[in-house]
Amino acid sequence: MSEPKYTTSARIMKIFAYLLMGVGMVFTMLGISSFIYGGIAFMDPVYMLLVGLMLLFAGVPLLAFAQQGVIKPEFNTVSLVRCTNVPDCKYTEGRKFERGDYVFKELDEKCKKCNSQLIITAIFDVEKKPTGEQDETAENQEEEKKEAELPKPKDTKNE
Amino acid sequence: MQGTEWSWIFQLIFLGFFFVIFFYNQRMQAWMMQKQIERALFELEKMNNEGKDILVKLVNERGKPKEDPRPTLNSLMDFFTVMPVALDPAGIINRLEHILDIRKTRWEWHVQQIAPAASVDEASNIEGTIEAASSVNMVYKIIRHYLLLGKKTKSLIILMQVQMQLPLIMEIARALFQALKAFSDGKPIGDGIGAMIVSALVREYNKKSPPKITKGYTDDITLMELEIEGRNAFIIRATGAGSRVGKPGEAIKKLIEEKNGNIARLIMIDAGLKLEGEKTGTIIEGVGSVIGGPGVEKYKIEVSAGVKFKLPMDGLVIEESQSDALGAMTKDLVNSVPKALKILKSAIQTRTSEGDNVIIAGIGNCCGIGD
User: Would you state the pLDDT for residue A155?
Assistant: First the structure.
């Protein structure tokens, strides 16, 4: 199960709510202790208690509101079109899925490069990325590239 | 006010708080759980209504019904299938198969009635959409039942059981809703990866050896015969591109009997549920009859290929989550196809000899995956 992703405003709101509740808790505790063990000079204990409770109660709805800021992933469906004249022609194209498309469907149109038959080789969902976020697939490709670049173990027989 | 008076007030407040917590703790807990279930139920209701709307739109668009399809669709939402009695387990598989067959025939008849203009593939997709919508409806009704029961009886245990399982239940419901949308659009779902892999294998070798294709070899099953690496390969998969799973077990049984057991190896490819932490699209190998479902097809393979002819059975599983399996196919799964083909070819080359007969079965729902 994947962890829910929150919007930036929801994340800020969540931090703010925890902060408010934390401060409220401190004020409440100080208020109560000042009644029992004697006053703390900077504020009347009653006000301290009131402020504390108010902050505590203010934090709760804010937290509940922040929980609603979960980003629901949106997807685009892509039909991957390829030329059947492999390996001579490597023409590949990603198109928006249309009703009636299916994997291994032979298309009416011909390859723009070699005029051979085009075929849909895959249909899959791709998550829409919010602007500014790095493409995960590009990141994965980078990682794969790095892995491939790792030095291979030496052949001990030749040494 | 003096400090001592305040301390009395706080003592009283504390006692009051203690009293409330002592006597009403469970009520408060139950109330919080109830609110969580209500929120989930609201989401389920939204999915259920949206699913029904998608279904009605699909039937009206593709099927061109003469009458309003809603009454039939509503009755199909609550359609039930009584499983055979297990008190006397002898012959339960045959009884189960019969029940599943009559259920399928009945659904096909209903779909034909409400969508007369739909093509064969579109009718299968409508059938799949109805099934997914009916499952979402069932989840919604069960959660509503337990919520109302918990509220009526004020039982913490009922609410607690539902609330604790809610994340998993909601994941299943969301996956079913994704399946509903995929079937209605005719998109391939993750469960169809097995069928996609075997078709990709056929396409890799079809220039060297054009396959002999037998559609309807058994119920909704296509058989493709071709030469792969010098072996006689028999490829079995459900007929695409509609939402069908067919009876691969029946097809394997029939083929083995036709060849009098002269089959060197049976290789099955299917989607399997991954564990949390595992990557979608990971390929794992094993032995046995790799097929899910109610068990009828698995039984047939185990009896015919296993017990009767003692055939070696290899399995290839493409790991995915429940939402991946029921939802539209993801890129991770598509990327697993070349890797699976490599493993499959290696299995054929290393575990069989030239001239051998090999059965390769791609299991799964073929929605959006052509032959």
Answer: 47
